[in-house]
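Input record (one chain):
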Amino acid sequence: MNKRVEKLREQSISAKAAISRERAVLLTEFYKTGQAAQVSVPVARALAFKYILEHKTICINEGELIVGERGEQPKATPTYPEICTHSLDDLDILNNREKVSYTVDKTTRESQDREIIPFWFGMSIRERIFREVDKNWKSAYDAGVFTEFMEQRAPGHSVLGNKIYRKGFLDFQQEIKNSISKLDFFNDPEAFQKREQLTAMFITTEALIIFANRHAEKVRELIADETDANRKKELGKIAEVCERVPANAPTNFWEALQYYWFVHLGVITELNTWDSFNPGRLDQHLLPFYRQGIKDGSLTKEDAKELLQTFWVKFNNQPAPPKVGVTAQESNTYTDFCLINVGGVKENGEDGTNELTYLILDVIEEMRLLQPSSMVQVSKKNPDRLLKRALKIIRTGFGQPSVFNTDAIIQELIRQGKSLQDARNGGSSGCVETGAFGKESYILTGYFNLVKVLEITLNNGVDPVTGKEVGIKSGDANKFTSFDDLMNAFKNQLQYFINVKIKGNIIIERLYAQYMPAPFMSVLIDDCIQNGKDYNAGGAKYNTSYIQGVGMGSITDSLSAIKYHVFDQEKVSIAALLTLLKNDFNGEENFRQQLLNETPKYGNDDNYADDILREVFEMFFQMVDGRPNTKGGTYRINLLPTTVHVYFGSVIGAMPDGRKALTPLSEGISPVQGADRNGPTAVIKSAAKIDHLRTGGTLLNQKFTPQFLEDDEGIQKIVHLIRSYFKMDGHLFHKSWCYNFNINSF
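The corresponding structure, as predicted from the sequence alone:
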C-alpha cells in the first residue's frame, strides 16, 4: 500500500472507539419539536432521519478519497435510544470493559442522564417488547432458552443489490411519485397507509442528497485553505463526486464507491442495523466501471486498488453500535459483520470470477483490517486458482476470507422460493446467512439454545440452574425406560419453546412495523416502492425470518452419552446420572472421563452419534421451517452461534457429554471442542449428514496449524477437502490458522 493508505489505515487502527451522543441528541431534538405528533409514524421517522443528516457533523479525514463517517470522527459510535436506551450502568460497562471498550466521556454521560433517558423512558422498542410479550416468553428468555435480536437492534440483515449502480436517487424519487399516482383510494383500503409510506421514502431520498451536498460544501471549504496542489486537485474531484452521487447514477469507479458509501451511512444512521448491511457482490457490481475506466484510460489498476483500500478503511471506522445489559457484558465485539462477497457465478450461471475479484483479494490481504469481513463464493464453475488464492491469504493467520459454497447457496434459495436469477445474484451476509441480495428482508430473530431445552427436559420442565419452572411437564426422567421415551419428551419440550419463541417474534414484528418503519431502507430493497409498503411490514419481494439453532455438537454428544451409557450399556441409571449432573461431577472425575472419551461422538463419521444429530436436526427443522411470519414470508432455520455459545453455556449446568457446568457449548455445527478424533475428513462427513440445503446457512469451523499450509502441497490438500465438503452440499468451510490453536468464532 502507498503512504496515503498506510496513514489512513494507521489512523483507523489507532482510533479509539467512543460513544457519540450526537445522533441521540439530534433525534431527541427533533421529537421535542412536536413535529412527529402532527404526521404519521413513517413520515415522522423520515423527517427525523432528514433532521439528523441535515445537522450531524461532517467529517473529512486528511488524505482520504472516499468521505463520510457515521460519527463526528472515525470510530465515534452513535446510540439508538428509540431501539434501546442505554442506562448509566450500561455506559459504565462499555467504558470499563477489559476486552472491547467504548470510551464514554463526562459530557456524553451527563447528556444521557439529563436528556436522553428521561425523554425516551417507556418509548423504546425494547421497552415495548417486554411490555407486550407473554410471561412464558420472558421466563424462557431469562432462562437462556433463546435470545431476541430485535430487542436491542433493528432488522437489517439485508444486502444491497446492483440497482444503485444503475439509478440515482432522483430516479428513485420518480419511481416513488409514479407509485403514489397509481394508488387506488376507492378500492384499496390500504391506499392512505401506502401513501404515507411512500411519502416517507421520498423524504429520505431528499435527505441523502442533502447529506452528500453537505460533504461537497465542506470539501470546497477545505480547498480554499489547501496549499498542496495535488491535494487541492483531489479535493476538487471529491467535491464533484459528492455533487453527482447519489442524486445521479454513478458513471465511474470512484463515483460508484462513494455512492455506495453514502447509502451505507444512510442505512446505519436510520436504524441500528447491527446485522451486516453491505454491498454484497462487489466484484460483480464494480466490474463495468473498472473495465470502462481501464479501457478509456481514466483509471489504472493502481488507482482502483487505492480507492478500494481507502474504501476498506471506511468500514473499519464504523464499530458496531454497543449493546445493553447482560449482552453488553457478554458480547465483546466491534465488528458490524459487513461481509463482502466475491467469486461465485454470474446471472447466467457462468463463472463469476474476474480480474476485479483478484484485485479485491489483494486488498484484503494487504489491508488486514477487522472490517469489512470478506468471503469467497466457490462454485464448481470457479477455477481452483480462486480457492488457492483465498487459502494463501487465510494461511497468514488473518482469518479472512471465509469460503462459501455457491452451489449450495443457490439451491437453498431456490428451495425457499426464490427465482433462479435472484438465487444466483444472492449470497451470504453476516456470518453465514443466505439471502437474495437487494430483494429480501431476511431477519435473524435470535439464537435458540437446543442444549438448554434438553437440560429442562431432563428436569421435567424445571430449569435446574434457577429452580424455576419454565417449560412444560414433559415427564419424569427417572421413569424413562427407553431412549425413545427421552426423545419424545425432548420433542414435546422443544415444540413448546419453539411456539413460545415464534409467538414472541410475531408480536415483535408487528411492533416494528407499527412503531419503527425504515423508509430509507425501503427505498433500497425491491419491491417496497412498488408495493407501497415498508421494509419492516412486508414490502420486500422476499421476507424471511430465521431462528438460529445453537449447540448441535453438544446436544448430539449429550444424547449419545445417555443412549450409550444409560440405555444400551446400562453402565449408570438415569437417576444416578442426573445426580452427577446436579453435583457437577464432583468426586466422579473418572466417570466424567468415560463420558468424554468412551462415548460415540459427533465429528468422527460414527453413525451412532451422527444419527442422533440427524434426528435433532429434523425435529428443529420441522418445527420451524415454513411457518408464516407477519410479512407474507416464512420462518427458516440456520445453525450458527456468533459467540453466544459462550453465553448459552454459562446458563447451563453439567451435561451428559461430560461438559462441566457453565462452560461453553460447541459452536456452529462444529464438533464439541476436542471430540473429533478421526481427522478433518471425518468431521466433514459427519457434518454433511444433515441437509444443509434446508437451512439458511451453517457454520463449520476447522483449525489447522500454520505449518500445514506452508507449501503448495498443503494448500492443495485443503482445496480437495473443501471441494469434497461442498460436493456433499456443505454450506461454509471456515478455518482458523493460529499458533495458539484457538477455535475461530464469528
